[in-house]
Amino acid sequence: MSVFKIKIWFTACSLSLLLLAGCKDEVKEFENPYSGGKLPLGLKFNTASFIEPTQGSANDVVTVSVVGAEQYKTQLRFQFSGEEAEIVSIAGDVVKVKVPAAGSSGSTSIQIGDQIFFGPQFKVFGKISDDPYFKAKIGANNTIYDAYKLKTGKYLMVGEFTDFNEKGIVLAIKKIAETTYEGEVQRTLQLGTGVVSGYLSAVTSSPNDANIFVAGNMSAFDLRGPVKNITRLTALGAIDLKQVDTYSSKNGGATYPKLTVPVFNGGTDAPIKRIFYFNNGIIAVGGFKYYVSHRYDVGRTFTYTSGNTTLTGYRDSLVRDSIPIRQVVRFKLDGGLDNTYHFSGGTTLDGGNGNILDAVMQADGKLVLVGAFSKFDNKAAGGIVRLNADGTVDDSFQVGKGATGYITSINWNSTTQRFVLTGVFSSFNNRSIQNILVLKADGSIDDTFVSGNFDSGYPSFAQQLSNGLIVVSGNFKKYNNVRRAGFMILSPQGSLAQGYNTLGELTGTINRVLEERNKDNKRSIVLLGSFRKFDSQAVQNIKGLVLED
């Protein structure tokens, strides 16, 4: 064994020696305990040639250079993103492998026993790819929660972001952006500074976009208020304002000018998660306990003495009225409380005994709520309930006992007439169903969809496209023992859709999927959410893809 000299300086000093003669340095030599070591198993990827080609489709034969491969000819296993590949031949350091049918883009690897050696990246082609017309390459610098398509064809996107595609450098973009479907920022609406503090989680509008409504966690919009988590915008995107007489202006005359305030005078005591327009009203869902509004006609008189004279003055006092309302509320279009919705005998109903995590509305105004509750309005509800257009529980909804666990997301597809649900549950209505299921419009289980097994996590979002394919995201690593890290596309029957699962890992989660035809008339989707890496690419919360029919 060769000797590797290591010099270690010892300071052999005592206090007395330090005072008398100083310190003495000594040199000692040791053998290197790591010298003469070998490469693990004598196996490694050859960095000089690596892999050829670097991209291909399922069943393509790829050549890989692996030093020491031949000596492990009967033991070597090769994988594409964790999926086993057929080894066609091994000759010397040349390994020929076939891209597996379930292979996806990402790292290649070789395995001998329990030892794994990671190799080069490989791009797997399939029926899904980047949309060449998508323009939001930089994306949003924080989460996108929701999007709404205006009659102009443009979209309003809302979330926690303070910049979108780096267009906020010129003009502020605060939690709301007007974009094309391809993600190009527009400046036709007068959104101003948007929401400076807080975030927006939902957006909708009245017919013909006469008014736009935004909600979330905010106290002002475009620096105008007071706002309590929801407000109304004009058709041009500016916060809708009016002037009101305050108590002081009524009693003090011209010296007390009118106050400019939002037209929408209503809100909640806690953030709003979803909002829906129906029949001249806005239905909001969230974790709130109170409906709140402001009184401008109430003030306080006060007296003070000046010499021998007692004077009366007027002082404005922004009075906030509050009414107990749990989780679901219907606003009139000016923010007033609609006490005919989710009320009984003039009293609001109880709501759920746990959190509401998501909600969707059907065309007839019926609202489906999901979450972590076992009762709603004192009726048994296993994480899911449907409300009639007046807010009362719809007993005709055929979900039975619901989920054993909780439901994290629900989406409704008006074309397929199906709900898709995800969550942490092992059964639904006494049937063994794990983490994802499809319901018919009446709430009964769609037996044509059979959920598979999730490994190391669960799905947090799923949305069905108009052609029946289902986009799924979450923190799972495998589905039915096939490597699908955080993202997959399922067939309407619940299996991995063939050819649509070649993209690599998604780090994060999806909140919404938009669907249109791109300029080549191909089916395209835009993913919105909270994710920073997808298919080995750095992305920021938005991604455009094309799906071959």
TrEMBL record:
The keyword Transport does not apply. This is DUF5008 domain-containing protein. Residues 1-21 form the signal peptide. Keywords: Signal. It comes from Pedobacter vanadiisoli. Residues 31-120 form the DUF5008 domain. InterPro entries: Delta_60_rpt, DUF5008, Ig-like_fold. It holds the Pfam family DUF5008. It comes from the Bacteria.
